[in-house]
Amino acid sequence: xxxxxxxxxxxxxxxxxxxxxxxxxxxxxxxxxxxxxxxxxxxxxxxxxxxxxxxxxxxxxxxxxxxxxxxxxxxxxxxxxxxxxxxxxxxxxxxxxx
Length: 98
Prior knowledge:
The protein has about 100 residues and is of the alpha+beta class. It is about 30% helix and about 20% strand. The chain contains three helices and four strands. It has helices at about 30-45, 60-65, 90-95, and strands at about 20-25, 50-55, 75, 80-85. It has a four-stranded mixed β-sheet, with helices on one face. Strand 1 (about 20-25), helix 1 and strand 2 (about 50-55) form a beta-alpha-beta unit. Helix 1 (about 30-45) crosses helix 3 (about 90-95). The radius of gyration is 13 Å and the shape is globular.
């Protein structure tokens, strides 16, 4: 099985994890669109805490088959938030509890 690489943004440890959205950003090395989506998510968060795992889409054949032609892909769990371009409204829905 391929190795995953992860990157974490800082959040206060006392914050209840339920109130902090958790994303996975599927990327490829040297992908400018991927870097743009990561930066857009960070700007959109506006200092609100969140966690973002960065995963190379090519590390896993199933992931590559499902998402490889649509990167960057931002997921929340198994749910698609957005692909190719950042969608602020869809991302904001992940920051709203409930």
